[in-house]
Amino acid sequence: MIRFENVGLRYGLGREVLSDLSFEVHPKSFQFLTGPSGAGKTSLLRLMLMSIRPTRGLVHVFGREASTIRPQQMPIVRRKIGVVFQDFRLLNHLTTFENVALPLQVRGKLEADYRQDVKDLLDWVGLGHRMHVLPPVLSGGEKQRAAIARALIDQPDILLADEPTGNVDPPLAARLLRLFIELHRSGTSVVIATHDLGLMDQFDARRLVLNSGRLQIYE
What contacts 169, CB < 8 A, 6 or more positions away? Predict the structure, then answer.
């Protein structure tokens, strides 16, 4: 699904922030991406999403080398990738329902065709009673769940989550992890970037550990 071959990344003329990364993310797999702050977790997720390109090496996404994907093809490929950002990126002028439905609306789908799917997903993440409120009214945990629902609404093949439990208390973090586990069991590959060892210990999964820009893998 995603394959890195000897990938290195540097910003500008600085030292490499990622060096000699070679690994694969398989279909229907679950892995944690971890490491200390500044280890390069977010940069690695951005490479997977193809929002940045490596300085050297090759990144293959869904069987295609990322640098060969034309700009007009990129939105089609990215529809297969759901992303949960640290800062949520909800639009404050749209309701929870409208934020979650936005990927479908952008694709030109009619609300009559997706309304029930959005409602069902909001119920699944525990926000069915908050679907008509605006993001400023939501708590941090509710915003996080809305962002997760938006990432899932288009049924991605892989979900990339950047510190998805960083802004919530431990009980809610455990609940969010259960959502990701259920998603994985439904067939979606999941990559969760986190430094929360307690969270990772709740689920026996592969660990991609970054340290000083280099990767170790624990199966």
Answer: 141
Domain ranges of the chain: 29-50+75-218
CA dihedral 174, 180, 186, 191 (to 10 degrees): -140
For 86, the enclosing helix (H) or strand (E) is none
**What does the alpha-carbon distance between residue 147 and residue 90 come to, in Å, rounded to a whole number?**
7
Tokens 């525990």, residue? Answer: 126
Quote the pLDDT of residue 112.
92
Locate 165 and state its tokens.
Answer: 């439990």
Rounded Cα distance, 182 and 193, in Å: 17
Query: What residues does 64 pair with on adjacent strands?
Result: 61
Highest CATH level, class, for 29-50+75-218: alpha beta
Q: What is the per-residue pLDDT across 122-173, written as a single tens digit (0 to 9) for each?
A: 998 889 999 999 999 999 889 988 999 999 898 899 999 998 887 777 887 8
User: Do residues 56 and 4 lie in contact, with contact meaning Cβ atoms separated by under 8 Å?
Assistant: no
DSSP SS3 for 34: strand
